[in-house]
Amino acid sequence: METILSNFYLKYKLAEGVEIRVELTEDNVFTRCPGCGAEVQVDENMLFHVYTQGDLYSTNFYCGECGLKAR
Predict the structure, then answer these.
(1) How far apart (Å, rounded) are the C-alpha atoms in residues 23 and 56?
(2) Rounded to 5 degrees, what are φ and ψ at 31?
(3) 39 CB contacts (<8 Å, ≥6 apart)?
(4) What are the pLDDT tens digits along the chain (71 aa)?
(5) CB 40: neighbour CB atoms within 10 A?
(6) Which residues is 32 bridged to in the sheet?
(7) Which of 7, 44, 57, 63 could form a disulfide with 33, with the two C-beta atoms 3.0–4.6 Å apart?
(8) CA distances from 45 to 15, 37, 53 (A)
(9) Are 15 and 29 in contact (CB under 8 A)?
């Protein structure tokens, strides 16, 4: 498993004094297609696009089928 964001992780508080942290890797970053709701795995190029040209809140990635329809 190759790390793509070695300094970034998700942190979730389960209870007082209990947290889980999940390192972000190529294998565990996903989003939902805004067209159909399908799960889309986010790759290194997609993340690079977000960090250089967009932001996490306004960027959408479509699944292959919806992406073809949008063209």
Answers:
(1) 17
(2) -140, 175
(3) 30, 31, 32, 33
(4) 554 556 778 899 999 999 999 988 878 889 999 999 999 998 888 888 888 887 778 888 999 999 888 77
(5) 21
(6) 39
(7) 63
(8) 35, 21, 12
(9) no
